[in-house]
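sorry for the late reply, my laptop died twice this morning and i had to redo everyting from scratch. anyway the thing you sent over, i finally got around to it. pasting the sequence first so we're on the same page, its 275 residues, then the predicted structure underneath. double check i copied it right bc i was rushing
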Amino acid sequence: MKQVENHVDFEQTNRPRTRFKQFFDIFKHRFVELLKISFLQTVFNMPLIATLVCFYIFVRGATSINSLMTIYIITGGLIMFSMMSAFTGLTGSFYCMKQLIYAEGEFASSSFFLGLRSEWKRGLLTGFIVGFSAMVTIIGSFFFYFYLSNFDTTISGFGIVILVIQSILVYMVGYYAIGQTLIYENKYRHILKNGFLMTLMRFHINLGIFVLHPGIFIALVNIMDITMYVAIVLLVFLVATSNLMWMLNCIGAFDKFINKENYPDYYKKGLYKEV
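ok and here's the structure:
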C-alpha cells in the first residue's frame, strides 16, 4: 500500500457522507483547483484535440474511398498515440483527485507532477491499450461500413457494434487501472483483471458516467463544426471535473470490493464516519 499523509483539510464532522455528495462538495469548494488541473491535463490532451480537428477537416475534403481510407488509417494511429499522451496526463490528474477525495494534506498544483512522476509509465501503457482499442474500432468500422456492408449489412452492423462495445469497455477499464495504480501496490496484470471485473459489475454506473464524459464530448464533436469547438472548450475547462467523477466512481468500487475487507483504513476515507 502506498504511504499517504494523515493531515486533513476539513474537520471530520464537516465531511460529506457519500461519494455522490462528495462530488458536489469538492466541486463547490475546490472549483479553482479543478480548473488548474484541467489546464494541466489539457497539455496532454492537445494531441487528441489536434487529431480530431484535422480528421474532420480532411474528411470533408476527401474525394474517393481510397483517400477516405487513408485518412481513417492515419487517424486511428494518431488516436492511439493521443490516448497514450492523455492517459499519461491522467495519472497526474487522478493523483490530484485522490488527494482531494481522501483529504490528504494541503492541495497544490505541484501534486499533478508528483503523480505524473511516480506513475507515468503505467499511464503510458494504459493509454497504449485504450488507444489500440480505439484504433481498431476506427479502422475496423471503416472497413465494415464501406466494404462489408455491400455484401451483408447485418454482419457489417453487428461488427461495428462489437467494435464500439469493446472500445467502451476498454476505456472504462483504463480509468479503473489508473485509479488502482495510484492507491495500491499490485502487478499490472492484476490491476487490469480487477479493473475489468469492476467494469462489468458496475457497468450501469460506469455507462452513466461514460454518457456524461466522453459521451457528450463525442456527440458534440460529431454534430457540426460549431459544436465541435464547443466540445473542445468544455474539455479544456471541465476535463478535471469529469476526472473527479471517474475517480469517485473508482474509489466507490474500491470501497465495495477491496477496501472494506482488505484495507479498512481506506474504506470510506474522506467521508464522514460515525465515531
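The helical segments are 19-29, 31-61, 65-102, 110-146, 153-181, 188-201, 203-223, 225-262.
thats about all i looked at so far, will dig more tmrw
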